[in-house]
């Protein structure tokens, strides 16, 4: 499996740089899905559903006794006129950090 090793060889104190690369890549994917520019995947000549991509972001699992519930507030640009979220939350050692993108 390819990871960040091909972009940045592992070494001591590279965790912050790797996290920044990952956040940047996720922001690009978010923007592409939000603007509905993500290319349609195909299996042979049949197009696959793109519905599951909406659950990559803004989704939370709510636990219940019998069965958990997935709640997603993600909306594409054609579904909602509100501006999308422009921040990320990082949880580290029990602390929450919010950053604007």
Automatic annotation (TrEMBL):
Domain Choline/carnitine acyltransferase span(s) in chain numbering: 13-100
Q: Does the keyword Acyltransferase apply?
A: yes
Q: What is this protein called?
A: Choline/carnitine acyltransferase domain-containing protein
Query: Which Pfam families does the UniProt entry name for this protein?
Result: Carn_acyltransf (PF00755)
What residue ranges are annotated as transmembrane? none
Molecular function in Gene Ontology: acyltransferase activity
Q: Which organism is it from?
A: Rotaria sordida
Q: Any idea which UniProt keywords this protein has?
A: Acyltransferase, Transferase
User: Which InterPro entries does the record associate with it?
Assistant: Carn_acyl_trans (IPR000542), Cho/carn_acyl_trans (IPR039551), Cho/carn_acyl_trans_2 (IPR042231)
Listed SUPFAM superfamilies: CoA-dependent acyltransferases
């Amino acid at each position: 499996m390819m990871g960040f090793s091909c972009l940045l060889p592992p070494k001591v104190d590279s965790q912050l740089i790797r996290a920044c690369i990952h956040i940047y890549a996720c922001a690009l994917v978010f923007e592409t899905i939000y603007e509905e520019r993500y290319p349609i995947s195909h299996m042979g000549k049949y197009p696959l559903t793109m519905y599951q991509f909406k659950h990559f972001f803004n989704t939370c699992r709510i636990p219940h006794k019998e069965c958990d519930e997935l709640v997603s507030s993600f909306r594409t640009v054609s579904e909602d006129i509100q501006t999308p979220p422009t921040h990320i939350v990082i949880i580290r050692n029990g602390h929450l950090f919010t950053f604007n993108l």
